[in-house]
Write a structure and sequence with these properties.
Order of helices and strands: EEHHEEEHEHHH
Strand order of the largest sheet: 5-1-2-6
Number of domains: 1
Shape: globular
Structural class: alpha+beta
Largest sheet: 4 strands, mixed
Oligomer: single chain
Distance between the termini: 22 Å
CATH architecture: Alpha-Beta Complex
CATH superfamily: Nucleoside Triphosphate Pyrophosphohydrolase
Number of strands: 6
Amino acid sequence: MPFARRDGEVLFLLQTVFSGRKRGFLNDFGGGVDPGESDRRAAAREFVEETETMYLATDPAGARRTPSTVAAQLPRVEALFSATLGVNPDWWCARSSPNPARPKQWKTFFIEFPYRDVSSLNRLWAADSSGRYRKRRELYWVPAERLLQLYAHQPDRLWKRVRQLRGAPAVIRAIQRAGAR
């Protein structure tokens, strides 16, 4: 789950989609692990893919999601993982398995990213009528306090994968404390 610090506040980057079963929920970035891929590499790849390579692009309007552009951005995202988890190795959560008889080993990492205003990315997704993007999304910077309120009082606004993170509020508070030092 990407986060950034801006004007003394910790913000978490979440997304929503406009079709399918995740429609209307606040969701993180993630998905399946490819054969031979580490959890961290999969999380980095999923972020790059789900933002259509626009988040880190100098020119989001010119960004195109292709295997080569995804591969080109992975080292940058992996460096952010190393920088964050190298200092705070416990900033990740396991996910409760929906079927305890067949547990899965899902992990969600909380990684500090450079802040970027996402309004231009959201406009590009909204204006797309050609099918350039795989799925229309909208990104939101959610203040840490608001995310904690959602966990405590409105968890149904969060996609199940986010709701099922064990210990997420504790990690969010740890990130807030780290920023206050």
